[in-house]
Every structure is written in structure tokens, then in C-alpha cells.
Amino acid sequence: MSLDNLKKNMILTPFNILYKFSPKKTLEILFRLKLGYPLNLHNPQTYNEKIQWIKLYDHNPLMPKCCDKYAVREYIENKGYGRLLNTLLWEGFHPEDIPFDALPQRFVIKVTHGSTFNIICTDKSRLDRQDTIKKCNKWLKAKFLPCYGEWFYGIEPPRIIIEEFLEGDSGMPLFDYKIFCFNGKPRMVYIDTWKNNEHTINAYDMELNRFKGVELGYPNDDTTAIEKPECWDEMVRIAADLSKDFLHVRVDFYYTHGKIVFGELTFTKGAGFGKIKPLEFDYKMGSWLELPLERASQ
Q: How many CA atoms lie within 13 A of 65 on its CB side?
């Protein structure tokens, strides 16, 4: 665990304790501290407020399986989209068992219960194997902060998966299309790009018209042109189908060499604490999501 994570865990220890007694009060305090306005769970309006509601009151039994990068593969297969899964080269619980010699020159290593637990290997001859094993062991032990209320993480035993390396077409970046679905309907996509090791994100409507001036936690990219991929309509249709079992989910895809590749499912972007600018867009996203508010009173 990094120094920053250790510090973060120490700071949040009182909230982890409070969460055991009052999840609702804990989220109300953290929400006010992080976003600067009070959390309204009785009549949530913004996207971030509705994410807090989902964490407290939506205990969909599919969520623990579908937030795990390995277990979700079975869900995708059962939905009839196994063809979209990236090639799995190896999976296991012990990094010491990784068959490095049998792997191709390029591959991606992931630990299945985290969003940043990845090693992208573009040249196996330069990979530090012992450092890789050390990182994976550390990541496997990482726990999600209880006070953030994302109860569905860590229920599936975390493991290591190694997948085929993906790249964009003709030297272009490998775009990650993250489609936000609300009550089974795709309403927004944001696309990640990297420039000079800087992570940037732009948000678009479902015709890939950019929501200008909207920031979702990262700077905008004003220079990269995004063209609608040939399979865009199919990608949107599949996202809608995969989202039908959930109130809200972000469905991620890659597009490479004319092929759609499934990425992951995400239910609570930024744990509902990510700043969305301007605030009016937080309200706009919230307006797309209808919640069964009667659950909170049961």
C-alpha cells in the first residue's frame, strides 16, 4: 500500500468506524466534505446524490459478480456476448504461479477488484518479474474503504487475470468508450484519452456530440478528434441490453480493428464523490435516473 493510501486510510479510520453504526450518517458527512453541498436522500436530484442512494438501498445480487473483472465474464457469456470478451491468457490467485515464459511479448495484467491495479506490458523482455509479483501481492490484499459504502466490492475473491494486449487502429489511441446507462437507456458516453501521460476525458451525447465545458474529474481534451466507429449503433444496443438488470451502470468497451471488446461494468463512478463541473450537469445526469424511492422507507 502506498504512503498516500496509508495516509488516506488513517484519516478515514473514524468514518470506517462510524459506518458500522450509521452508513447513512457517514455518507452524509463525507458527501458534504467532498462536494460542498448537503446530501438529500429523501429527494435526491443530482447524479452524485443518486449514487449515494444506490449504495445504501440498491442491493442487487448481481452487482458483486459484475463488478469483478473475472466473475463478470460469466455474466457476459450468459447474456450471449461471449464473443466480446478479450482473450484470457491466464488467471489465478497466486502471482508466483504466473507462467511468464509462456506469455506472449505483450499482455495486460489485472487484479480483478480494483480500478487501477493494472500492468501493461509492451515488451516482456523488459518486465521486472519480481516487481510484478510484489505489486500483485500488494494489490490482492487491498481493501475498499468501508466508509465509501461500495458494499459489492471484495465479495468475489480477488484474483489475477492476464489478457491479450489491445491497441488502436493505425497508430491511433485505443479509445475506451464508457457508456452511462440509466434505467436501461444509454444517455451519455465519456471517452478517455492520454496525452503526454496526462489523463483526459470528454463527455458526449449518444450521437457523439461533445458536452463542451463539462468536466468529470479530469481535464478535457480539446485536440483529439473522436469519430463514430462503424459499430457504434451495435455498441450502444449491447450497452442497453447489459444495463437492463440494473438501475444504473456504466458499460465500458474498446474498439479495435473493427471489433468491439468488452471492458467492465461500473455501478458507482467515483463512489458518488467525484466533482462534476458545472454543477448543473450533475443535476442533468441526475435527471436521467429514476429511483424507486419507496425502498428507502422500507
A: 13
